[in-house]
Amino acid sequence: MSGIKLYHFGVSGPSRGALLAARALGVPIEVEQVDLFKKEQLKGRISEINPQHCVPTLDDNGFVLWESRAIACYLADKYGKDDQLYPRDLQRRAFVNQRLYFDSSSLYVKIRAICFPILFLGVKEIVPSLKDDLNATLAFLEQFLTGSRWVAGDNYTIADTSIYASLSSILAVGWDISSFPNIQRWVKDCAVLPGFEENQEGAKLFGEAVKKNLK
Ligand SMILES: N[C@@H](CCC(=O)N[C@@H](CS)C(=O)NCC(=O)O)C(=O)O
């Protein structure tokens, strides 16, 4: 099982999502740092193997894959010791997939809409309509966590690692989740995820980068 490499940047939520899934699965992965602030994604091997030159990018002994949630699904199917993190049962898997798509098409998108312009386009404040938009999406997450310890059932799955990687970025910016008690409880529970501290370090850097650009 040698030669599994992840091109990674800890500041990036998607990149942390793939790594958190790998850590939860116990995949022995070699992490190569790609500093996006130094445009390292446009140089070296990642630029040769991934025409989209984005992190995370996985190279599993020559099999190259990007898109964080696709990476998490692949690693779980190939290296998962059992199907706890990505169930094989069709309906349970569909449920996990639904949460993963919720993250990729809604939660992460709303967080990016707020933070990207602050990080890279000179925007100095959180646009109120975008704030409302993210809170409306968090209200759905709050609902998912009603009567369910984890986002897709009784045990944590790659839906939790993906969603936590996204959410931890905006929490590090100082987002107020006091009106979402289920999310608050789940965030505390996520401390048991293997790789949690490593994720926190990257999220902290993300939060600092955003906050230093706010007026
Ligand atoms: N949907 C993708 C998002 C990947 C993505 O946008 N990565 C950004 C960092 S958050 C990146 O590498 N940007 C550098 C570039 O595109 O050149 C995923 O989940 O992996």
From TrEMBL:
UniProt signal peptide: none
Matching Gene3D superfamilies: 1.20.1050.10, Glutaredoxin
Origin: domain of life: Eukaryota
CDD domains: GST_C_Delta_Epsilon, GST_N_Delta_Epsilon
Domain GST N-terminal residues, every copy: 2-83
Domain named GST C-terminal: residues: 89-213
Subunit structure: Homodimer.
PANTHER family: GLUTATHIONE S TRANSFERASE D10, ISOFORM A-RELATED (PTHR43969)
Protein name as catalogued: Glutathione S-transferase
Naturally occurring in which organism (per UniProt): Plutella xylostella
